[in-house]
Amino acid sequence: MQTELAGKVALVTGGSRGIGKAIALALAEAGADVALNYQNNDRMAEEVCGEIRNRGRRALAVKGDVAVAAEVTRMVEEVRQGLGPIGILVNNAGIGHIASIDTISEQEWDATLAVNLKGAFLVTQAVLPDLRRARWGRIINISSVAAQMGGVVGPHYAASKAGIIGLTHYYAAYLAKEGITVNAIAPGPIATDMSAALPQLKPESLPVGRFGTPEEIAAVALLLAGNGFLTGQTVNVNGGRYLG
């Protein structure tokens, strides 16, 4: 896999912490240069870049809101100028504010769909020219077990993550002949800031008896990045929470 990914340029959205950070570091270990998109925390993004450089790879932190087309265009161009054409895209950026059926507002719905689903669409569209020119590419979309069984965050989150699976299927079907694979990962509860904000999630409720780790999701992302025959799939990494 190091041979396959060596020298490739990866863009990981939401890459300054949690699952995104773990994937960025795993890709760097496999030989890729990595650009991290983030929205707020400059210090955390630069710390991750430092860890990537310590692994002997180039790194770049690019600030921007994935839900805003103009910012996505600027962000992707910064990556091209700083590291070169993008070959691997990980659409990981997402938000998940808790709201029930009775409390969800139109604003919360729109904001969640904008970041979680529209953001993946915008960044993919911006990166596609690089992948098509190379006739090689890997797109990895981060969905959620909530897409399959509703979850506990709210209808807005479940719908956005289900949309990611549909988007994955569409791109996979139309891009396979161009050497571009597109897959999704649907994590269950992972030990991140989001899970910590959901007290109703209990490790003992999972068949494996614990939350997953960001590194366990990163291992699957690395598998998808290195496999040119695997496309259009949703890989469930959920500790047995959903047996699909």
UniProtKB/TrEMBL annotation:
Q: What is this protein called?
A: 3-oxoacyl-ACP reductase FabG
**Recorded superkingdom:** Bacteria
The protein's GO terms of the molecular function aspect are:
oxidoreductase activity
Report if keyword Cell division is assigned: no
Q: Which InterPro entries match?
A: KR_dom (IPR057326), NAD(P)-bd_dom_sf (IPR036291), SDR (IPR050259), SDR_fam (IPR002347)
Key words of the record: Oxidoreductase
> Matching Pfam families, A to Z?
adh_short
Ketoreductase domain: residues covered = 8-188
Annotated family:
Belongs to the short-chain dehydrogenases/reductases (SDR) family.
Cleaved signal peptide residues: none
Which NCBIfam families does the entry mention?
A: PRK12826.1-2
Record keywords: Oxidoreductase included? yes
Q: What is the lineage of its organism?
A: Bacteria, Pseudomonadati, Thermodesulfobacteriota, Desulfuromonadia, Geobacterales
